[in-house]
Amino acid sequence: MTRAEKIDLIRSRPQLSVATLSADMGNQNAALQTLKENDVNLLHFDVMDGNIWPNITVGSPFVAGLKTDLLKDVHLLINKPKQHIDSFAKAGADLISFSVEYTAHIDDTLSRISTHEDILRGVSLNPGTSPSFIKNHLDQIDYVLLLGVGPYSGKELFLDDIPAKIKTLLEWKPELLICIDGGVNKTTIPEIAAMKPHFVVSGSAIFNNENPVENLAFFNNAISA
């Protein structure tokens, strides 16, 4: 699928980008099949190395190992993301985003993603980061992840500032895709859906019990309302 086709798909209706790390790690194929059968097009990967965020999650071999037609949405929450772009591209990433707060050369990292012409280029902004931080880079950016939680904020949510950030970003670049990530659950999804993002990331709220199909229906209905 080309970059343009991926953008058109995401724009066609509000999307869920679902992480399966909280599903059964011994049976990821079952989780992928559940997503595919329940109107999900994006598979989300939070890649953490324990330096920026306290957790350590998965790397490019895990991304490569999941065989699926879902678009692989890779979020690099790591130091020096530029060094790892090529390995995630080779692993089949369709979207790659990175934390601008911890990236010394934002333009160089975006340019590295651009060498893989069919991959969407994204950045993420922590709750305390102003959109002005990326204003001069927007010509290279396809989508922005607005985070509702920060690396060390625990369970504290920062959703109140997101609508203003969305308004500002879309004034600067109307064709920009907006994603909201962090703190997405059944309680917050109505508020988040009202902000009209193009896609929303969730994981544990989908696979937190034995009813992921029911949870997916709930979230899909909420973002489509």
Folded structure, characterized:
- The chain is an alpha/beta fold and 225 residues long.
- The chain has one domain: Aldolase class I (TIM Barrel, Alpha-Beta Barrel).
- It contains eight helices and eight strands; from the N terminus they run αβαβαβαβαββαβαβα.
- The model has no long low-confidence stretch (mean pLDDT 93).
In short:
The protein has 225 residues and is α/β, with parallel strands linked by helices. It has a single domain, classed as Aldolase class I (TIM Barrel).
Topology:
Elements: H1 3-12, E1 15-19, H2 28-37, E2 42-48, H3 60-65, E3 71-77, H4 85-90, E4 95-99, H5 106-114, E5 120-125, E6 143-147, H6 162-172, E7 177-181, H7 189-194, E8 199-202, H8 212-224
Parallel strand pairs: 1-2, 1-8, 2-3, 3-4, 4-5, 5-6, 6-7, 7-8
Q: Tags for this entry?
A:
8 helices; 225 residues; globular; eight-stranded parallel barrel; alpha/beta; single chain; TIM Barrel; 20% strand
